[in-house]
Task: inverse folding
């Protein structure tokens, strides 16, 4: 799940300066849940842009804009309308904007900012976050990830900045290392804190080339053969 | 005497610190070098303290070396990746700097460039470990150095904490830092000698010198501010009252600091005076504490 927030309307209007016809795409996945790019927000955006004298040539809400194959199959019937427009406005996360831009030979304006969640949170979301660092340290940290729970992502232990169990960065934020300490104490594993964690190989955090493809690669092979085409 | 020789010789060490200014004006550091020369064993130079951008610690340390002092090059993990950190350590060695103090570094949002990207490529323990590899003649990639470093590595510890978790973690971190090569410690400011003694009872087993931190109080307001905002600083109420009642705040502040130092002398292997604007008064404090 990627969380997005709509950009200020003035900023979006600025992107559309000098253009008349805009096609709006929304997303029924995370952007719908974020209430930034579902059908109600797409229709609201249409109304506001028309209020500013713009022509909205059409709208489409795709289930998952991050899925290029879906983008292509859903937008293809609207190809003529889209190609007659000056640009597209995508109300979705940054992945969706990039997927639409890859499939449509028109400028695609981002209508949202993607908010950092400090690591992905799994399908059933809780407060546990994974940075996908490629070299898991959870063995040494009581099953609480120091990269995501500590503001500085320190691997060996806390800095000296905590007050009353809160992080120096924000009084709202617990010191991650005190949480780790409490968990290790509870499970009788405080000794692992003495293990020295050597410098990290950050390259393991980069996606491997084969991972850059999606899990729906077969579908994409079929339907993104026109990548860079009109739609 | 140089810091390492003092501590290796089992003598009580006195260090203090200076903070470079924002800009190219080095007149204050030149003046402090004159005032502090011969009075202390080492002078720490802070590294972008509180994440506020200033003249670099490396350049200021080099000036102190030229003036005949033994600087302690403070290095945070916040601003440099492992390439820059190792390069600066080589530079420090070439410039005649003998000591490094490793710190995590306040988070950028606490400073004056709040949009800055934080680094923490290495954490403090990893940086201490790195310096010891360089002392052995190798960089982090395993390459042999053409001329190795010979740096005396220190680290920081917070002797007083507001939670048991934090207190225990500080001791564990101290042990871990020693295991990767920390040779001395400087602490957060201490105001309660009894509480410090409790810490030292636990820390003594590590047999690594600890220099207790001392910050002279300038006013009751400053004490209250630190209690509220500075992690690990707890000024007792009676000291705050003394400052509030004092007619001569300077004399009272210096006397409290001197008394602390007299009390800490039997409990620690040295003191580290962070004068925060009162650097010129450091020789006076030392005289009052019978450490001159």
Result:
């Amino acid at each position: 799940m990627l969380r997005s927030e709509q950009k200020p309307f003035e900023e979006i209007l600025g992107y559309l300066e000098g253009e008349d016809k805009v096609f709006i795409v929304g997303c029924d996945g995370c952007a719908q849940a974020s209430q930034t790019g579902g059908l109600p927000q797409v229709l609201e955006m249409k109304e506001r842009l028309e209020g500013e004298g713009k022509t909205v040539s059409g709208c489409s809400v795709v289930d998952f804009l991050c899925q290029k194959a879906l983008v292509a199959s859903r937008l293809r019937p609207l190809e003529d309308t889209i190609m007659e427009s000056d640009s597209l406005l995508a109300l979705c996360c940054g992945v969706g904007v990039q997927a639409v831009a890859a499939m449509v030979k028109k400028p695609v304006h981002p209508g949202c900012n993607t908010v950092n969640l400090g690591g992905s949170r799994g399908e059933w979301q809780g407060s546990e976050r994974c940075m996908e660092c490629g070299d898991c340290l959870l063995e040494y940290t009581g099953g609480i990830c120091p990269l995501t729970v500590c503001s500085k992502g320190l691997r060996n232990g806390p800095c000296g900045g905590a007050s009353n169990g809160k992080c120096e960065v924000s009084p709202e934020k617990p010191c991650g290392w005190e949480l780790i300490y409490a968990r290790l104490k509870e499970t009788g594993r405080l000794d692992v804190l003495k293990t020295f964690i050597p410098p990290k190989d950050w390259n393991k955090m980069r996606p491997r080339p084969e991972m850059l493809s999606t899990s729906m690669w077969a579908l994409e092979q079929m339907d993104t053969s026109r990548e860079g085409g009109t739609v | 005497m140089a810091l390492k020789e003092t501590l290796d010789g089992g003598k009580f060490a006195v260090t203090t610190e200076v903070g470079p200014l924002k800009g190219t004006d080095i007149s204050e550091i030149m003046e402090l070098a004159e005032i502090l020369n011969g009075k202390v064993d080492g002078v720490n130079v802070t590294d972008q303290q509180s994440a506020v951008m200033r003249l670099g610690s490396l350049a200021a340390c080099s000036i102190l070396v030229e003036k005949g002092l033994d600087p302690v090059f403070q290095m945070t993990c916040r601003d440099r990746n492992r390439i820059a950190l190792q390069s600066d350590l080589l530079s420090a060695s070439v410039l005649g700097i003998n000591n490094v103090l490793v710190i995590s570094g306040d988070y950028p949002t606490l400073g004056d460039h709040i949009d800055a990207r934080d680094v923490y490529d290495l954490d403090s323990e990893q940086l201490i470990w790195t310096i010891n590899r360089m002392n052995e003649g190798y960089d982090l990639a395993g390459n042999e150095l053409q001329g190795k470093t010979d740096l005396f590595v220190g680290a920081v510890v917070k002797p007083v904490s507001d939670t048991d978790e934090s207190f225990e973690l500080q001791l564990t971190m101290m042990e871990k830092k020693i295991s990767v090569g920390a040779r001395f410690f400087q602490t957060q400011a201490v105001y309660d000698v009894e509480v410090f003694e409790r810490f030292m009872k636990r820390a003594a087993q590590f047999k690594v010198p600890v220099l207790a931190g001392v910050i002279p109080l300038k006013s009751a307001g400053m004490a209250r501010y630190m209690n509220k905002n500075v992690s690990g600083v707890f000024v007792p109420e009676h000291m705050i009252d003394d400052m509030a009642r004092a007619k001569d705040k300077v004399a009272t502040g210096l006397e409290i600091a001197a008394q602390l130092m007299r009390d800490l002398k039997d409990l620690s292997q040295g003191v580290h005076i962070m004068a925060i604007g009162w650097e010129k008064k450091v020789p006076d404090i030392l005289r009052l504490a019978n450490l001159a």
